[in-house]
Design brief:
This protein is an alpha+beta fold. It is built from 15 helices and 23 strands. Strands 1-2-3-4-6-5 form a six-stranded antiparallel beta sheet, with helices on one face. Strands 14, 15, 16 and 18 form a four-stranded mixed beta sheet that branches. Strands 7-8-9 form a three-stranded antiparallel beta sheet. The longest helix is centred in the N-terminal third of the chain and has 20 residues. The termini are far apart.
Length: 558
Amino acid sequence: MTDPQLPDLIGGRFRIRSLLGSGATASVYEALDTVEGGVVAVKVLHPHLDVTPTVRAAFFREASIARSISHPSVARVVAMGDDGGLRVWTAWMFAPGVTLAELVRTRGPLPPAAALAVVDRVLGALEAVHAAGYVHRDVSASNVLVQREAGGDVTAVTLIDLGVADRPGRSARAGDVLLSGVTAAAEGIVGNPAYASPEHLRGDAVGVAGDIYQVGALLYLALVGEPPFVRASIDETVRAHLMALPPTVSVRARGVPVELDRFVVRALMKEPGDRFASAPAMRSALSAAALSSPRGVAASMAVAPSGVPAPATRLLPSPVARSAAETVGPRSGASSLMWILLSTAAVLVGILVFALVPRAAPVEAQERPHASSTAAASPSVSSASPSPPAARAAETPGPRSVTVPTVVGRQEEDARALLAAAGLRVAEKTGSSDGTDAVGTVTATDPAPGEVSASGDPITLVVASGFNTVPDVRGATADRAQYSVASAGFAIVLRHATSSIVPAGGVIDVDPAAGSRSPLGTPVTLTLSTGAATPTPLPSPTGTTRAPTSTPTPEPSS
């Protein structure tokens, strides 16, 4: 069944066949590619969100990032465009299989070898994502497609949904799920609370270690049947990610070897530096855990499930008090529904508190309510500190040293507040930079994050202008031109014209002009060549020649 509001062809190429699903930002349709053949998934931005050029540019970010990544286990973008301002869309290769969330829901937890096969391929995909200079930030069971043979062997795994991917070291704070930076609502944390790392949920910078954490949570779900920190509410789930000790898989899943217990616990450590250093390192450790297992997990990285499928496990017990009708279960539909943790008082206060105390020790008492307050208390340093020498007591203390916090990726107002809280001040004049970052986003600081500065010293912020330079793609192929323009943060409008100079499919002209400075999201019209115009044939001769007529000379009058 097709949407009556959509045309027969999207982008003059993709014929809509059915609706696959709908998420927070877009509807996803199954479509036939009338140019190259085959089935694709077309994602169309919801009309009510298509209100500004900046939002459209934010929507194109996912496709632009995907085009910079080449890996068989990463979803591949086919095309993207803006149909004359009527609709904004991206088209993707149709990935086979079902989501890991759906597979576990219907078939129960996977056997260890099958779970390792899935995670091994996910880590391979993340290697490519990280090599391209991005972190995924939403590695969840709803974003992993698994294809299996009739016997149960895993044959293909695809990592999808790069909608919240970003450069390492940036915060996931935003006002909307597109990360457009234009929403006037209060900022929240964009992410999936069932899988997000502690630093992600605190609003701190998220790097490769954040993806490593999510892979650990993904493996836990594959083996147990639910994410590692399921609680009665989103607030409690967030607190568990921040404070609770990593759970042990074998407590919930019989037959899981201790090697996998250790692997998952290390991936779920609270401190990023305590996790695996990279996707390749994690992949190597996964192979080592499988090989050292006494139960022969490594005998096959893809085995059929047990004869009697385990019952499907709900990802969240019935909540004691449902808030906004939200649960932490898997997200339905072809387009992932991103959670945005906004201003419910409990969640907001919790996140702010933990942002101020990022190194809080895990609270074992939350996992063991029967523990006494005395036993749960952390050892304290004696208050009887030795007195300083008399000579030092007379000295005038100098300015306190402060480590410059990471504020890159935050909005300027937020960055100023964090720097002030750290005892630093922002210089009156700040720099400005063009690029693909949303207007007002901090792109650099001087001194740089992590450097030591004296309390009260000025910090210079470099803030995104919201402008970028239109790339010169004249003469480039249509695909290369669209990639370059979308990567620069602009929307795309396609026009066609004949040209005796530019071959068919090449770019004849760019409007606004190449090299001009334009606001992000500005529609850039690419005029594509259809080839040289076919000459109009001259009419063929009829074969009859009209004889010339002479004008008689008048006789002179007498």
